[in-house]
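User: Can you predict the 3D structure for this chain?
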Amino acid sequence: MNLFQKIDEVLNTKDPQQKVTLTYQLFFDWCDGRLKIEHDHPVKSFAEAGRPNRPELVSPKDLLRRKVSTEEGRAILIHALTHIEFNAINLALDAAYRFRHLPDAFYGDWITIAKEEAYHFSLLHAHLQQYGHNYGDFPAHNGLWDMARKTADDVMIRMALVPRSLEARGLDVTPGIQKKLSENGDPNAATLLDVIFRDEVGHVAVGNHWFKTICEQRGLNAEQTYIELLEQHREAQPRPPFHNEARIAAGFSESELKYLETAF
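Assistant: Here is the predicted structure, written as structure tokens:
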């Protein structure tokens, strides 16, 4: 089967569990060489990815409070993380589907990331169910997918503003979330986040690699280009404090971190 046709099928699947299953199958088909890369396969206009009717999508200011000292507050937090991982499956699939005429390794990277995000979603959803809830029980926001829409026309900007900016934010905040959960009766969730955090460092590193590679191909200075893109897109601007060790492991330079710490 054509690679892009198969990704399109998975990307537009609405049922979360079916999307997880198909994402794993996509990964296995890719690894086994059963998918052909045919760049003349037409790229559809950017649209909403397949997702269930719930959760209700609301503005971030309208989200429920996550008071982790209560059981419901912890469930709301776990649900928010589950929603991020569901969106992350779609983001990885869209990157592999939308951007053409790139090295085979680019598609392999994002198919692998989609599979890992599907695993993260499954881990968190199973944990959410221990609270007596399912994905969709609480409102959520669509910030990650909104950024995918804004960066759909340029792979360089997508790499800069999604993995390098919004997803890198997860590296900064995860240790604090783990601490709150551990101190408020859910050390198991904190352990799950150890697994997810490790993988997410790798995902941000992939975004860093392809951003820098594409900048080099275009004759652009990667660090200066990144700064310019952040200045143009306020919604992607990072906020301190930063997890410098994790960001360096994911491919950020010392000079970039110094800039981020002073600029934002």
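The chain has ten helices and no strands. The longest helix spans residues 187-217.
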